[in-house]
Amino acid sequence: MAATEEQGGATSSNTTPIMSPEQMKQIITSLSGGTRRPKAKEPEVYRGERHKLRGWLAQLIVYYRTVGWQSRHDEEKILYATSLLRDDAGTWITPYAEERITPAWDNWAGFKGELQRQFGVIDAKGEARIRLKNMKQGKRSVTEYWNEFRLVASEAELDDSTGGELLLGGMIAELQNAWGASSEEYEELETLAQWAIRKETKLATVRHIQGSQKSVQRETIIPGTQMGHTDPQIMAIRTTATLSNWTRLENDQDSISQGKNSNEGYESNYVSSARGLDT
After folding, report:
1. Would residue 81 count as lying in a domain?
2. Model's pTM, two decimal places?
3. Could you report the per-residue pLDDT of 106-129, keeping only the tens digit for each?
4. What is the C-alpha to C-alpha distance for residues 33 and 68, in angstroms, rounded to an integer?
5. Is 136 within a domain?
């Protein structure tokens, strides 16, 4: 009996403890110095501008995720956001910070909702639709135009068909014509945008090639003596002419030749008159 107990005791002392995968992960993390988070750029201050609230809240969301506050930490989120409020927004938060008014929120979602009620766009969907109707690509690239369009469209709640018409309507005429000549179809707004980006790149390549060919033609010099003319005035005209200006060049040459003949006739008459006076 005693021998059996001794054997059992020896067996338990030699048994290696089983470690779970989570415990192994924690040990590896501690030995490697822990999980390093990227350094986040702090959000800008907010002064109460309605058109900037959405972007500012997006900056806060990214910052909170970076520092590990994506869940819970409601009090820290509210305090940090409050510290960034200035001007009109700072005036609004002051009596709450001084505890003169009891806030209507008790978590981050409630605080963010109150900010949106105070400083958000009144009719976000209606205003977004108006902006999309008036939005034009202008001198911007399709990528720049599409990024702004997509941001505003996310608040307009449009279907892809309506959104596609507005997106195409704001593009430059060259892309609109290219779309009209194309047999491609799109089912989603994103598909149309990607088509326009690719087409813009192709059109830019064609313009570059054609521009290079025209540049070579402009740099071609026609010698002044090529057609037997050695007059300095004719040579000056020819050295600046291109292959596409032959007709205008010949007219210039005729004008110069007629001018020379007129001068020679005038000089001959003048000499004859002078000789008549001498006699």
Report:
1. yes
2. 0.57
3. 999 999 999 999 999 999 999 999
4. 17
5. no
Host domain of residue 274: 232-278
What total of structural domains would you count in the chain? 2
Which of 62, 88, 119 lies at the terminal end of a domain, its last residue?
A: 119
